[in-house]
């Protein structure tokens, strides 16, 4: 079973990487970009075949390692 | 209109970041993780309201700045 985890900075947390992308897009002539937020996506290939167990395991991974839940939020999708 | 771009390393391209995550998960006791790939996700807030034009603009951004198309593939979703 495969899972995709998307980790983004929470709203209100300054995102310098996203700001850098926004500036760079402006410099390249892309007008009309009001905001950019950059996060990370992690695709996991799991041996677990039960969807509920897999999701619980991935959430535990997020809490322990993949996301810093003080400043980041995460979303888990099974694919 | 908002767009989400997901940029992943192409299959076959070595992903040291993903490997590091896989090892770390193993060290934390998460068995049964067969593979990990890490990529980035970029959420754009666009002034453009026409879906087709917005997608074309985002694809141009990806080709010029957001993805290195030699080693990375990207996916655009309008949200």
UniProtKB/TrEMBL annotation, chains A, B:
Report the superkingdom from the record. Bacteria
InterPro entries per record? PurS, PurS-like_sf
Q: Which GO terms describe its molecular function?
A: phosphoribosylformylglycinamidine synthase activity
Q: Is DNA repair set as a keyword in this record?
A: no
Protein localization: Cytoplasm
UniProt cross-references to Pfam families, sorted A to Z? PurS
EC number, as in UniProt: 6.3.5.3
Q: What is its main location?
A: cytoplasm
Q: Which reaction does it catalyse?
A: N(2)-formyl-N(1)-(5-phospho-beta-D-ribosyl)glycinamide + L-glutamine + ATP + H2O = 2-formamido-N(1)-(5-O-phospho-beta-D-ribosyl)acetamidine + L-glutamate + ADP + phosphate + H(+)
Look up the record and name the pathway of this protein.
Answer: Purine metabolism; IMP biosynthesis via de novo pathway; 5-amino-1-(5-phospho-D-ribosyl)imidazole from N(2)-formyl-N(1)-(5-phospho-D-ribosyl)glycinamide: step 1/2
Going by the UniProt record, its keywords in alphabetical order are:
ATP-binding, Cytoplasm, Ligase, Nucleotide-binding, Purine biosynthesis
Assembly, per entry: Part of the FGAM synthase complex composed of 1 PurL, 1 PurQ and 2 PurS subunits.
Q: Which family does it belong to?
A: Belongs to the PurS family.
Q: What does this protein do?
A: Part of the phosphoribosylformylglycinamidine synthase complex involved in the purines biosynthetic pathway. Catalyzes the ATP-dependent conversion of formylglycinamide ribonucleotide (FGAR) and glutamine to yield formylglycinamidine ribonucleotide (FGAM) and glutamate. The FGAM synthase complex is composed of three subunits. PurQ produces an ammonia molecule by converting glutamine to glutamate. PurL transfers the ammonia molecule to FGAR to form FGAM in an ATP-dependent manner.
Q: Which NCBIfam families match?
A: phosphoribosylformylglycinamidine synthase subunit PurS (TIGR00302), PRK05974.1 (NF004630)
Protein name stated in the entry? Phosphoribosylformylglycinamidine synthase subunit PurS
Organism, by scientific name, is Paragemmobacter ruber
Instruction: Write the lineage as a comma-separated list.
Output: Bacteria, Pseudomonadati, Pseudomonadota, Alphaproteobacteria, Rhodobacterales
